[in-house]
Amino acid sequence: MLGLMQSQQLLISSLIEFADRHHHEGEIVSRRVEGDIHRCTYRDVARRSRKVANALDQMHLAFGDRIATLAWNGYRHLELYFGVSGSGRVLHTLNPRLHPDQIVWIANHSEDQVLCFDMTFLPIIKAIHDKCTTIKHFVALCDADKLPADSGIPGLQSYEAWIAPQSDRYEWPVFDENSASSMCYTSGTTGNPKAALYSHRSTILHAWASALPDALNMSARDSVLPVVPMFHVNAWGLPYSAAMTGAKMVFPGPAMDGKSIFDLIESEKVTFAAGVPTVWQMMLGHMQQSDLRFTTLKRTVIGGSACPPAMIAAFNDVYGVEVLHAWGMTEMSPLGTVCTLKNKHMTISADEKMTVRLKQGRAIYGVEMKIVDDSGAELPWDGKAYGDLLVKGPWVIDQYFKGEGGSPLVDGWFPTGDVATIDADGYMQITDRSKDVIKSGGEWISSIDVENIAMAHPAVAMAACIGMKHPKWDERPVVVVVKKPGAEVTRDELLAFYEGRTAKWQIPDDVVFIDAIPLGGTGKMQKTKLRETLRDYILPGV
Ligand code: AMP
User: Fold this and answer.
1) Which of 7, 52, 234, 327 sits at 20 to 30 Å (Cα–Cα) from 70?
2) Using a 6 Å cutoff on CB, does residue 305 contact ligand 1?
3) pLDDT tens-digit series, residues 8-37
4) Which ligand 1 atom is nearest residue 331's CA?
């Protein structure tokens, strides 16, 4: 017997309509590329996202067409979040930190039709626009009078001129909630970047679960600052969960330095902020230097890479801000676990609490997880046994866009590439990463790309790239090189060889020359052994 309740489709348009109706005065504050502070409301965003939807209709863009953005966190980007997905198109957030060649590859792979970009990225667009073979329209996220006359980009128009003539009335279409809503490429896998393709249903369920008290605990009393970029897994879903709860949103634009972030937290009375450890490290450094205090910040969610104990202690003990250590992935929309204490932890000592807080936390409702050994057998939740971490749930990937790489699932579970323990209370702790990619300041560096460039040097016989612990960036790449017999190349020559061949921040910090790289039975480089060999190695300048 079926239940007799309404089966309404879970669509992203419902979020902005809800925010418009119930939180129309809710503020959206953005630091703009122009440097000024822009203020608007949920009602304004709702109105303008309907204009975006009308503008897309007028361009005859089909249901499911990809509309790309290359943009910072800001109100126009938010309008695109709702206007693009709400009208049935797919929002594709491109990562401007990638090398321009990678951006071209990704835009062509996803077959983007429109690209909306912040003026900061005009030089990138000038360099790549004629290589993006599917993009028909370029839109600069600026006022009409800020549009350069001689950009050389055919048909370039300003966002404001694009939406100005459009009506702010729009009948959001109703369609299957499993339709694609947005996509994000990750370079956290081997081979070419692959895209997670989120659906309306997965996005709404993720926002719903992540707003719960033991997850991000969001409400209409919050002022939320997503420092995590809107081009990285939809800013951890915060644009959606904020609209769902009516929280005020504060966007940092391009200004991610410690001072700008701190100033914004204070001036906009931010209660909740989200970002990777590197961002908070810069902000805490600024606060310590200038002897500053928060007056409104209550909690901060830190994830993307492991949060160092000193950072948790500084936020908690010195500034009275609760740290929510969180773990997730692009393939998980991204939230998987959040570290919040249980009732039984209320009476334990501060040191014992810290032991718990250092873990990546408990699964939020909707995410199932398990750890397995090499043979795939499930390991106990005892806080000691560690194994490959597998997950499943309604906002976990089933397959990558265009089926790239085949099915990633193992018996219905997604292997995260992380190695973890889970304790009897369900707290998961990442102990290692089985994937070889390196995570620097929250962004991926492909060890294969770094190795391939070294291998292209005539003096290099073999190259292995591994991530080394770094106090600021979490990990930095080091390339370990075996020279060809009789050939010569110095450290500096090899590092200079990377210039122009990859993004600057992806160039390794150091070159280590060795006689031989350990190989396994199948001829694969054994990076775990290599890491053991380099266990006493310290990065230059650390
Ligand atoms: P991304 O897809 O770029 O969001 O990266 C996901 C990966 O980042 C995970 O699989 C982990 O390897 C790493 N990661 C994310 N959050 C954490 C965390 N809190 N602690 C340690 N590693 C993390």
Assistant:
1) 327
2) yes
3) 999 999 999 999 999 999 999 999 998 899
4) 2
